[in-house]
Input
Amino acid sequence: MALMADLQRFLRDRSLSVCNLPQKGRSLFTGRDFVPGEVITSQEPYVCVPNNSSPESRCDGCFKTNNLKKCSGCQVVWYCGSSCQKSEWKLHRHECKALSTLEKEKRKFVTPTIRMMLKLYIKRNLQNEKVIPITTTDDYSLVEALVSHMSELDEKQLMLYAQMANLVNLILQLPSIDLKEIAENFSKFSCNAHSICDSELRPQGIGLYPFVSIINHSCAPNAILVFEEQMAVVRAMGHIPKDSEVTISYIETAGSTLTRQKSLKEQYLFHCECTRCSNIGTPHDIEESAILEGYRCANENCTGFLLRDPDERGFVCQKCTLLRSKEEVKKLAGDVKKVSENAPASPSAENKQDAISVYKAMEKLQARLFHSFSITLMRTREKLLKMLMEVENWREALNYCRLIVPVYLRVYPATHPLIGLQLYTQGKLEWLLEETEDAVSSLTKAFDILRISHGTSTCFMKELSAKLDEARAEACFKRAN
Ligand SMILES: C[S@@+](CC[C@H](N)C(=O)[O-])C[C@H]1O[C@@H](n2cnc3c(N)ncnc32)[C@H](O)[C@@H]1O
Output
């Protein structure tokens, strides 16, 4: 009861409230207007772990990748130095002891999700023993309140969680541990845990933020969740009036309504009825799906979108009425598939040039098959951009970057950080290639978007701001000369 009163006070102080909505369960509401970029709430993780997939390991404290040393006790966890090791020791002391007794063979099964569960129980025990203080938002009772959807899981999923719970039990060997509760907590992780990303939205680890987890999903959200180190920060993406529900997006929102709904159903077990999803089946929604996930017109100069021909002969352009035959589409799709089978998902440094050639061939074929705003084509270009940056081919990288930005502008809301980040990359490339005026324009747009999602006080934003100032000064100098 005291905790509930604490939570109510905590919410009131931040002009927020939690309501129970029949279709959604707990939902976070605003008690005043919020302006674009304003922090609505933030929270440190109850528990978090880095993604420690080889070859890249991360420090357990700060998630950095440099100067790492393995914990000599358990040989599982990495640290960048004594400061991180010390700050983690209260918790890791217990985990280390438990992991050390685990057979070496079994240690490879200790995935980040398993580790997060180990840390969850260790922290709960330490809080019960008052070794770690309990605060309003750092409290296991908030974990207990999370939705699990246990009763909706199929046999296969339940079996997997039971096996994972057994492993946790084997490692921790706590006398009072309840296997059913651990399995249920794995299910809670699946629909409540967040992927912790750096400022450039690259995943670094996973974390449980039981207060932030009260926020529901929308495919047209009014807020965004970003991370400052490991702290989750929720910012308003636009003006949010008083008494509105705060929503974030749980998924990649670039995709047709059917694709978005499928991924929400699979992982979060609900049917989304947000403003975008309630358009399903309308002419606008059909057009959008055909553009994002469909084929291009046979006439190269036409920008129309294609729908299935009622006589099943193929696909008809809705702008110029030209028919693209089933056979032609099938042949081209087969060619794309053949090339894509040779495209490595993560090419090594040695075969990067070969991989670039394969992806370029794939991009050419996809550009003939798909609409120019196709998500599949966009993903191939993103991959090419990344590889070209890695081999320092700035000119070609810039060309792909310029093809990606218009697609982002179409598939994401205007203040989405992915647009800002892509413009930031474009600006840096333009500057490097001495297209200074263009660089100033791209960096300015990037800054205007990213200051809403990222704020202005992080190192990342300070660096962007400094680059923009420098580019402006250089452009001024060039103009004067
Ligand atoms: C991270 S929790 C959000 C808080 C949750 N409403 C609660 O009561 O704890 C995610 C779960 O909330 C529900 N949810 C989130 N967004 C929703 C939405 N737009 N419509 C319906 N249910 C939603 C789903 O059950 C989903 O698995």
Notes: Residues 23-27, 146-147, 149, 191-192, 213-214, 216-218, 268-270, 272, 274 surround S-adenosylmethionine (CB under 6 Å). The longest strand covers residues 16-21.
